[in-house]
Amino acid sequence: MPDLAGLLIRFRIPKIALWSDIEKAFHCLELNEEDREVVKLIWLKDVNAPISVDNVQYMRFSRVPFGVISSPFLLAATVKHHLESWDDPLADIVKNNSYVDNILVGTETTGEAWKLIKN
What we know:
By secondary structure, this protein is of the alpha+beta class. It is 34% helix and 20% strand. The protein contains 4 helices and 5 strands, in the order H-E-E-E-H-H-E-E-H. It has helices at 4-12, 71-84, 89-96, 110-118, and strands at 16-21, 40-44, 56-60, 98-99, 102-107. It has a 3-stranded antiparallel β-sheet with strand order 1-5-4. The chain has a two-stranded antiparallel sheet with strand order 2-3. Helix 2 (71-84) runs antiparallel to helix 3. The longest helix has 14 residues, at 71-84. This is Reverse transcriptase domain-containing protein. Residues 1-119 form the Reverse transcriptase domain. InterPro entries: DNA/RNA_pol_sf (IPR043502), Rev_trsase/Diguanyl_cyclase (IPR043128), RT_dom (IPR000477).
């Protein structure tokens, strides 16, 4: 992941600041079948009944859940992997100015800002 302090400084220096968020980014990452065994939710079917095999339901996540300590790293590594496969100046801008699922970019003119937005 890029240096957060450097990212924030680069974001605050220009006159115009642009911020973007990858919506529902964590839910885009699918877990491998074998990894789903370690990310489970244990649910009581009836909270008033005693705990028993028949009253417990195990649910496995199929996507990377938000809140797991490794989730931000997994998302950042996935985004970086895909951005590095593109030979495009915009991909470099996003790669160098993103933190997990946020993209922070600054420009000096509205023309530059609109050019970035349209790309």
